[in-house]
Structure formats: C-alpha cells, structure tokens
Amino acid sequence: MEWLGLRVLPARARVRWLSLLLLGLMLGLPAAAQLRTRTRKAAPARPAVVAPLPENPPAVQKKLDLAADLVNQFKDSEALAIYQDVLKTNPLHYLALWQAAVLSVKIGARYSDETRKAAYFDAGRQYGERALLLRPEGGESNLAVALALFNQATLYKAGARLKAFKDLRSHVYLATQNRPDMPQAWQLLGRWQYRVAHYSVLERLYSNLVLGGMPAGGSSREAIEALEKAHRMAPQNLQFCYDLARMYKYQGRRRRAIEILRHAEKIPPVTSEDLVLSRLCRKMLPPLLRADARRQKRLASARRPATPNAGAPADTTGNNDGSD
Predict the structure, then answer these.
(1) Sign, CA torsion 86/92/95/100
(2) Residue with the larger pLDDT of the pair 295 and 119
(3) Contact present, 128 and 98 (Cβ < 8 Å)
C-alpha cells in the first residue's frame, strides 16, 4: 500500500480513501491519479464591459423585427427560420445566433422522441457556442449555452449529466450577472441550484472523485430566491409558477405553494405547453389544500380550551355556581 501513499495516513482516513477508490473502480472510473476531493471555490465574477452591437442594415433589421414579432405570437419555428436566414448572409450576427440557440432548445423540448430532442439541443448548443465566441461575457450568449447544456443533460447518462451540470455553472451565473433583466436566466439558475443541492450520495461521490469536486452554488434557499425573481419579472409565465410551487412544496412551504397555484389558476393558457402546465398546477393544488385544512384543524384543536371531564358524575343538586 506504500505506493498509494496510504502508509502515512491515519487508519480512518485510509479506510475512507480505499472506500472511495473501490467505488471508483466499480463505476469504471480512471485510476487513483484522478481522485481529487477538494472543491475549488470559484472567484466571484466581475461585471463585463461589452461593446455595443453594430447597427443592422435596414433589410436585416426588418427580418429581426419580424422574427421578434413571431416569437411574441408563439410562432417559434417560423422565427427560427428567419434567424437562420439572417445567419446565411451574416454567420457572425450575435443576436441571430443566441436567439436561434434559445429557440432551438425550446422547440426541441416539445418532442417526446429523444432523437429529435438531441438534434435540436445540439443545434442550440452550436448556435450558443458561436455566440459565445463573439461575446464570451455576454449574458445572452451564456444563457444560450447554459440552456442547451441543461437540456442536453436530460438525455445523458449519469456521468455525462453531472459533467454538463458542472460545465454550465459559469454560464448561468454570467447570464444572470450580465443580463439580470432576463427572467429565463433566473429560472435556469434556480433550477440548476436546486438540482445540485439535491445530488444523491453517489452523485456527490462521483463529482468529488472524477469532476474535481461539487459545483459551488447549490442551495435550496438561493434556488427559491432565483425563481422568485423570475416570477416577479414575468408573473404570467405558467412555467415559473409551476417550478416555484414545486420548490415550495418540497421545502414544506405549503401556504406559499398554494398562493402561487391560486395565482396560476387565473392565468389563461395560450399555447399547448401552457395548457399542460395549467393542468399540472390544478392537479397539484387539491392535495395541498387538504393537507393545509388538516393542519389548520389540528392547530384549532390545540388552541381550544380543555373541556370538563366527560366521565365525572352529573351535578344533581342544582348547584351550577362553578364552585367545588
């Protein structure tokens, strides 16, 4: 064991080290040279100074305006086609690149077939990485890459999924830092923080053994704060309502979850995705209401003054003055 450097370790540390090594070998991981258990704490990012975008020629601006209108009308495929058309004549158009990335991921998420999902997610990542080359600190380009990585991770096996979650960390923080006005960036940050905060034991071990440590920033409290920001910016977004209500529910904040779901009931669905989310919100509400009613009943019983002993003999003397 001297070749592993275990001779100088205390007995308890040797047992722990060997346990981790055995787990690594069982998972088919590389040899002990890759075993690192310290997490590097990332330095806080500084605001980036980004040069203004060049002015678009009138013909290009007309296409961009049309694409934006189509997005507002929930015609994502038509809008994507226009952004792709702009990129044919100007492959380095920043706005067209990051918008094409976001729309590709959004469209891909609608498919149940994993092959189609993967194709759209891959395209979205390629668009996002091209935008990132133009503006490494751009909030939009970092959002595009983070969004593609997060959605691609849903199709990966465990190891690749955890690597994707770690890789997207810097991108999602840069997105919220440099474009704090984008609610989608805060939603993605909240989702990522909550997912990392709830890694399983095996996921934590794998991250420490292979990936150099857990991604910094996983926190249920911060995840809820990020989603609350997204919800405040876009209170009519049913996806934000649903995500936030689920987090409140998992954290035992039942009354807050009910409040958000009551609000979601008043939002009319516009797209087919909205209709699905509206139904999910309505399905989540009744069990929470029943649980809250039971809790209120228990609290009312606890506050009620104690009643006289039912087993005591009745007073037949007519003495009801309350004295003993």
Answers:
(1) positive
(2) 119
(3) yes
pTM of the model: 0.77
DSSP assigned state of 111: -
DSSP 305: P
| Tokens 């003495």 found at | 319
Contact by Cβ (8 Å): 200, 213: no
CA distance 184 to 143: 8
Of the candidates 170, 161, 160, 179, the one whose C-alpha atom is nearest the C-alpha of residue 217 is 170
pLDDT of residue 302: 83
* Range list of H helices, the chain: 11-26, 58-72, 76-89, 94-108, 114-134, 139-153, 158-167, 169-178, 183-197, 201-210, 220-233, 238-250, 254-265, 272-303
So what's the pLDDT on residue 10?
54
Q: For the residues 107-135, what does the mean pLDDT come to?
A: 96
